[in-house]
Amino acid sequence: MSPTPEPAAEPDAADAPEAPEILRPRRRPAQRRSRERYARILASAREVLVDVGFESFTFDEVARRAGVPIGTLYQFFANKYVLICELDRVDSAAVVEELDRFATHIPALEWPEFLSEFIDHIADLWAADVSRRAVWLAVQSTPATRATAADTERPLIEAICGVLAPLIPSADDRVRRFVAGLLVHTTFSLLNFSVQQGAPAMGEEHYELTVQEVKRMLISYLMTVAEAR
């Protein structure tokens, strides 16, 4: 069986183009009232994003729905790209939290069962909250949002690397990160496909079939990786 392809070597730093800026809020609230207001802003931003799409997304509408002055948004976010990236950070943190919880079951479960249960859980999150798909699509919009999304997903990649360590113990960290990134992006891309608005004809059947194929593909891939190592 052919070995798993090695990830491409990193380019020399002197030859690499300047990295895009990582987009972060100007500040995050510390006091309870500010945190509540911040949460309202994020919730309203999700609503606006789902209702009108990223191109028509405006601070004016977010502020109106959140019931705050528009200046309050600018206290936290320089522009809509920063706000969208903050939504992505919240979504990614929730996935990491769930992965950590599921990882505690690894000694009691065979890893295919673990992966199947975890994919089911993440797929249910995407199906139940359509804003996750909207956020995931929005952060693909510019080099800076893509770079920020990549920075945001690092804790998720590291968490998956920890899960992969017993499966491919001979692989170095660079290979495990490559495999983890492949798993993350494949799963999210196919979950996006499973809930896309263009497939209403099959509805629930489309969703279930896609999730089952995600499981089949990823479990087969990881079995191949484990055997090759």
Can you put this structure into words, describing what you see?
With 229 residues, this protein is mainly alpha-helical. 68% of the residues lie in helices and 0% in strands. It contains 10 helices and no strands. Helix 4 packs antiparallel against helix 5 and helix 5 packs across helix 9. The longest helix has 25 residues. It is globular and about 60 Å long. It starts with 31 loop residues before the first helix and ends with a helix. About 3% of the residues have low confidence.
What are its keywords?
single chain, 229 residues, mainly alpha, Tetracycline Repressor, domain 2, HTH-type_TetR-like_transc_reg, transcription regulation
CATH architecture of the domain at 84-228: Orthogonal Bundle
Low-confidence stretches: 197-202
Counted beta strands? 0
Whole-number mean pLDDT: 82
CATH class term of the domain at 84-228: Mainly Alpha
Q: Can you write the helix and strand succession as a string?
A: HHHHHHHHHH
Largest sheet: none
- Reported by name, the CATH topology of the domain at 84-228 is Tetracycline Repressor, domain 2
Structural class, from helix and strand content?
mainly alpha
What separation lies between the terminal Cα atoms? Answer: 10 Å
